[in-house]
Amino acid sequence: MPRLRTVAALAGAALLTHRALRRRIEHSPLWPLPALPVPTSGRPRARALTLTLARRAEIADGVVQLSLTGRDLPAWEPGAHLELTLPSGLVRQYSLCGDPDDSSAYTLATRLVPADRGGRGGSREVHEELREGMRLRVRGPRNRFPLRSSHAYVFVAGGIGITPILPMLRAAEASGADWRVLYCGRSRASMPFLDEVEKIAGPGRLTVVAEDEAGLPDPGALFADVPQAAAVYCCGPEPLMDAVAEVLPAGCTLHLERFTAAAPAEGEKAFEVELRRSGRTVTVAADESVLAAVRKELPDTAYSCEQGFCGTCQQRVLAGEIDHRDELLTDGERDGSMLICVSRARGGRLVLDL
């Protein structure tokens, strides 16, 4: 009996030690080294939240605003976005445009983009399928367009591009910085939050350009007397951002938020991708994504955002050097996988487990 009691005591101690070690390892995967606060590249996936669509309203022609409510929601700062999973499973990212001090609700707005203008179905689902009272899954917030401290700001927004800019205007006003804003759109009726922008800016700091009244905007006029070393924040269609970049004064810093992933850079090269399990090899052209090339052979390959944010298209890489261009994967995930919607090969060949 004493021997049995000793064995039982040792077994109990071993179990307690194992549980303690497991908790320690879960808290810090590098234990006994200290846990890294964030990975050196990539970001860990945010915990999914399920929120209630408390309010849905059309606030401009073709634009709906959503208010998603919950309790003690994670904090956010101007420029942040939320990843929204739609009922169909599509994943889309929308800028937060409400009040960062309100921990009970997230406010989003999205414009309906028809298929003949490049829409991929997400905005149509938001406009046609979402109803008040629905429960929706979100991740985030995350911020790849943060507002940096500056003595002076120039904000440029095109249409729905006002959504990340709006909280920035409030923050710039509260900071006492010198700031001005150019807000342009197809028509005043199509420009969301126009009344609020006019109220925040007051006289003298806002330039509104409605194309049906005044034609295309002239960003150069906005920079005629811009303060030296101002921070310039721009969100809108690609031509607008290109125009701002062309007239950016020397010494100013430019920060861009794109509606979609950036187009392939000049000088991109074609490369081959072997699909090991399928026994096929595809060529990825200089101006196409790995995802597009793979789907020509394997049309059922899963994807969603096509911008390197959601992780749906993550695939295991068996060989080859990866040029990671996503905003999501952690260092550990990048060792042997990639998001094929945006990332490419550093060399001439990759081998995927597909």
The class by helix and strand makeup works out as alpha/beta
Order of helices and strands: HEEEEEHEEHEHEHHEHEEEHEEHEEE
Strand line-up across the major sheet: 4-3-6-1-2-5
Helix content: 10-25%
Strand content: 25-35%
Q: What does the overall shape look like?
A: globular
Count the beta strands: 18
Query: Count the helices. How many?
Result: 9
Query: What's the main sheet like?
Result: 6 strands, antiparallel
Which regions have little confidence, pLDDT < 50, spanning 5+ residues?
A: 6-11, 13-40
Mean pLDDT: 85
Q: What separation lies between the terminal Cα atoms?
A: 59 Å
C-alpha Rg, in Å? 24 Å
Short description:
With 354 residues, the protein is of the alpha/beta class. The protein has 9 helices and 18 strands. It has helices at 2-27, 122-129, 162-175, 194-201, 211-214, 219-222, 238-247, 290-297, 331-334, and strands at 49-60, 63-69, 81-85, 91-95, 105-111, 135-142, 152-158, 178-185, 206-210, 231-235, 253-257, 271-275, 280-284, 314-319, 322-323, 337-339, 344-345, 349-352.
Overview of the structural elements:
- It is a single chain.
- The protein is an alpha/beta fold and 354 residues long.
- Helices cover 24% and strands 29% of the residues.
- It is built from nine helices and 18 strands.
- The protein has a six-stranded antiparallel sheet with strand order 4-3-6-1-2-5, covered by helices on one side.
- Strand 8 (178-185), helix 4 (194-201) and strand 9 (206-210) form a beta-alpha-beta unit.
